[in-house]
Amino acid sequence: MRTIFLPLIILISAWWTALRAVGEDIEQGIIYRILYVHVPSAWCSFLWVILGAIFACFILYKGKKSLENKMQAAMELATIYSFLSLATGSIWGKPTWGVWWDWEPRLTTTLILFLSTLGYHGTRLFIDAPYRRTFISSIVSLITVINVPLVYLSVNLWRSLHQVQSFIVGKNVVSSDIQSTLIFNTVAMTLFSATLYYLRVQKLNQEEI
Prior knowledge:
The protein is built from seven helices and no strands. It is mainly alpha-helical. The longest helix has about 35 residues.
């Protein structure tokens, strides 16, 4: 528990900053503050899917089965954060779009990403043979990562209800206080998720002893 204490305090501090230190949006009011959970959740889902795929590559091509627990922990976090991204996006969408859900490109591709991570866990759960389970779950992890650029670029590739990226290098699309607070929350959530990852890998390793 001591390991997670500092990252948790940092995350709570980031949330406090998002709630108290930044003003309300002129058009969306207080609901826009969910941005400070939604965007970091989406970023973390990308991060852990990508890391899971990297571990899968080493497992498949280098035969490093010792990385299997790391891949599993990464994909578990990918599931959690892709679900958080969907849930917060839906909560944000209701007052801004008037609906909880729409089959528009960003939401649809994010849902596919989430379901793909569930598919990974399905292979772990229902395949008994260790070698076959490792091989197929690694393949699913690699398939899942293909969707990451599609999710990110979906608002530019297809007509979408979702707004385009607000944070583009070289363009000052949002105010500096919103940008700095969002960066703080993203770093805080990434640090917290990395701590969860570390603890989960430790637990998986201990279960094998």
